[in-house]
Amino acid sequence: MSPRDLLARLTSPEVITFLAVGGAGYVVDVGGFNLLRSVPLFAGHDPTLAKIVAVALAMVVTYVGNRALTWRDADTSDRRREVALFVLFNTIGLGFSVVTLFVSHHLLGLTSGLADNISANVVGIALGTIFRFWSYRRFVFTPASVTAPGTTTRVSA
User: Residue 148's pLDDT is what?
Assistant: First the structure.
């Protein structure tokens, strides 16, 4: 693939919309994480708990955004399957942030708020974003193709 083709793929409407929706989720995630870290109920606990709650809130935002905007034309015949896979792949994506936060905070001893944010909200989210785009596109928001009048068949992207 040439650099020009790669640039065209990276700037496609699908990728741009996915990143915009992800940006909204990122604001909810990072804002929620930092807010929860400052609330007395969470402040005395491991920051991983705050990260999990923040990601759960962001997950709702990104599901609605991706369903309504990024992949609005995707097959909607099995919403339970779609939501279950979305939650599964988000949980795996959360694992990237939690693992990078755990390594930084507990194994490397980098315990400042800045270090926690860089490990979880820069490195972890970047890795998780790449994984999420691939998994959503491949398994969650699959296109529908018409095979006969009134019927659809799921097609992998």
Answer: 43
